[in-house]
# Entry
Amino acid sequence: MTKKYPMYLAGEWVESDHPLEITNPYNGEAIGQTWLATGDQLEQSIVAAEHAFAQTRVQPVYERVQILDALAEKMKQHRDEIASLIAMEAGKPIRDAEVEADRGIFTVQVASEEAKRIEGDVVPLDLLPSSKGRFGIVRRFPIGPIAGISPFNFPLNLALHKVAPAIASGNPIVLKPPSRDPLVMLLIARLLDEIGIVPGSLSVLPMDREVGNRMVEDERFKLLSFTGSPDVGWEMKQRSGMKKVVLELGGNAGVIVDEDADIAFAAQRVRVGAFAYAGQVCISVQRVFVHERVYDTFIDALVQETNRIKLGDPLDRDTDVGPMIDDKAAARSQQWIEDAVAQGANVLVGGKAEGRFMQPTIIENAPKDAFVCSREAFAPLVTVFKVPTFGKAVEAVNDSVFGLQAGVFTNNLERGLYAYENIEAGGVVLNDIPTYRIDHMPYGGVKSSGLSREGIRYAIEDMTEMRLLVVNRLESQRVID
# Structure
């Protein structure tokens, strides 16, 4: 019998008339059933979040810390269950799923620490004679109910990047998890419910697009935090009204391989960055610009690395790359590759879809306006280009509407600093791939890649607002006996 996962609505476990079966992308087997929330259930969650805010906004820091510490401990106890669930519902290889489970625990631990460090300032105001005797105190206050929308590719950790800072900062949150793999966050909701949280401070509700749109537009939410595709994210911002908006979107991440780089290391890391989780990562390596003096050597090394990749069952510990999330994603990827070939590109490795499996693919000589170069492929494919100089490589990385993260392999410090100062991206990673992320760092992009930053400390800044208290010391000039 398929295990049932009711929705979590403000402290209650509920169902609806719209069942949602969750299947394993690898073999199509049913692994669980949940439900899609109705408009009325969303309304109940919003009203409950408003009521909960009266408590969470004044909840002492030690209580927020206790909740997060207890959640991290419970996640450690359920680590294998969490990883297996991610592998089954997301099709993520079990080794990668275990890494995501561990990162999720770390994310919660960081949130616990950052809850203790939501600090303010004392500002001297007596800079003019008219302000004699005055000073200011600045504190950060929680803003109110938050709408969180998380994606399928990291169903645990990217959702926790919304839930954990919300708890840390004293804000209720209504989370719309991805419809393809919502079960792991319903498990997290169960763990939080066992710990004991303010009723209404968390709701986890799978929804269809129509109901989810109400979250975007509802002014009772004070912040919308969305992680997903650029087209959807920017359209949401247009409909979001006056609320704050945080967009962590996608890109076509670029890598530079300089003439003095460690070629073997660069090829090994590019393989990981391009093909991990079948390329379904916002900062997956998609474009690689290689100095012409080492181009052939790099291509040979990357082809050898790619040919060693094993495709298979996500639950098999020897599997490197599992299926894409669905048949449509794999077929779409093959079509984009075929379109690039028709425009003059060469496929060095791969290029074919086999059901939901897309072969890891290396493409060269693709026109820069081909989809595989100019847009976010979100697939296990990488395009490579020969460049005459390091400066031209930086220009090529910037020749994109996106700017999430970039990677630069070089042993020349001046060139590395030049890349940092001139690449238009939210982050530049020296001597590693742009796919690198640790969960306390500021993470986000520029241009079409997003707005604001994630990373617990930086998310808390968006989830709080500064409030100034001006103190006029009327007695400041008197001598007190």
Observations:
- The mean pLDDT is 97.
- The domain at 254-430 is CATH 3.40.309.10 (Aldehyde Dehydrogenase; Chain A, domain 2).
